Amino acid sequence: MQITCACHRNARDAFVLRAGIALPAHAAILDDVMTTGATLAECTRVLRHAGVQRADGRSLARAPSPSNRA
């Protein structure tokens, strides 16, 4: 996969799972503030690679896009 956004490059390989942890088939990921979605995407990628069948992402708030900022 080609990663073009710096935010996604920075999140790539930022998360790892320790060996021996039992994972559920369905996981929920909670992010306090979603800016670009890179954190949720990378966490989902790591969980899916480890065998989680479904990962749902939630955030408490979303930062405005640069085009919508005053």
Word description of this protein:
- By secondary structure, the chain is α+β, with helices and mostly antiparallel strands.
- The chain has one domain (6-65).
- The protein is built from two helices and two strands, in the order αβαβ.
- The protein has helices at residues 6-11, 38-49, and strands at 26-34, 54-62.
- It has a two-stranded parallel ribbon.
- The mean pLDDT is 83.
Q: What key phrases describe this protein's structure?
A:
2 helices; single chain; 26% helix; 70 residues; two-stranded parallel sheet; alpha+beta
| β-strand amount | 25-35%
Biggest β-sheet description: 2 strands, parallel
Provide the gyration radius in Å: 14 Å
What is the overall number of helices? 2
Strand tally: 2
Helical amount among residues, as a percent range? 25-40%
Distance separating the two termini? 34 Å
Structural class: alpha+beta
- Strand order within the widest beta sheet: 1-2
The dominant shape is: elongated
Mean of pLDDT? 83
Low-confidence stretches: none
What order do the SSEs take from the amino end to the carboxyl end, as H and E? HEHE
Give a nutshell description of this structure.
This protein starts with 5 loop residues before the first helix and ends in an 8-residue tail after the last strand. It has two helices and two strands, in the order αβαβ.
Topology:
Blueprint: H1 6-11, E1 26-34, H2 38-49, E2 54-62
Parallel strand pairs: 1-2
